[in-house]
């Protein structure tokens, strides 16, 4: 593989591909969560959505910096959304909080797994620590959503076998 700026520690192609893919996934999660935010009624679920968006944006900043450090241009970002305000609640919802919570749960789990895989592949100490921090943030966010779902009755228990 050709070296970037004669840097022996530059990223390999598969690492660059993985980072590009993760940036695209994160941008789609940011866009969908902005849409969900407009439909959510529950204030606690709104807070989790905002925290998830913040985690995704922080991860994107770190991934873009990683690409830049290795002489690779990052993909263009999605549209910039207006700032989310906790008071923005629509009168009628097309998607209910239970459905949004379930989708959000899958998205957080997907982000957690992706960061876990990156954490596992990371070799440099500075990247390991960044992925470790993101790993914990997604784990804590997932735990908050599970607790909220239990408290609100959105988490359904499996049917008992008879």
Automatic annotation (TrEMBL):
It holds the Pfam family DUF3231. InterPro entries: DUF3231 (IPR021617), Ferritin-like (IPR012347). It comes from the Bacteria. This is DUF3231 family protein. It comes from Lysinibacillus pakistanensis.
């Amino acid at each position: 593989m050709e070296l970037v700026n004669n840097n022996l520690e530059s990223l390999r192609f598969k690492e660059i591909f993985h980072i590009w893919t993760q940036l695209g996934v994160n941008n789609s999660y940011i866009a969908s969560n902005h849409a969900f935010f407009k439909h959510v009624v529950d204030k606690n679920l709104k807070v989790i959505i905002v925290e998830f968006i913040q985690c995704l944006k922080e991860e994107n900043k770190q991934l873009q910096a990683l690409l830049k450090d290795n002489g690779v241009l990052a993909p263009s970002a999605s549209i910039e959304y207006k700032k989310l305000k906790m008071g923005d609640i629509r009168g009628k919802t097309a998607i209910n909080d239970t459905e949004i919570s379930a989708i959000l749960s899958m998205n957080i789990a997907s982000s957690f797994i992706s960061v876990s895989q990156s954490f596992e592949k990371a070799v440099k100490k500075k990247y390991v620590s960044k992925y470790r921090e993101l790993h914990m943030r997604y784990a804590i966010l997932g735990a908050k959503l599970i607790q909220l779902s239990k408290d609100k009755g959105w988490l359904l228990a499996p049917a008992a076998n008879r």
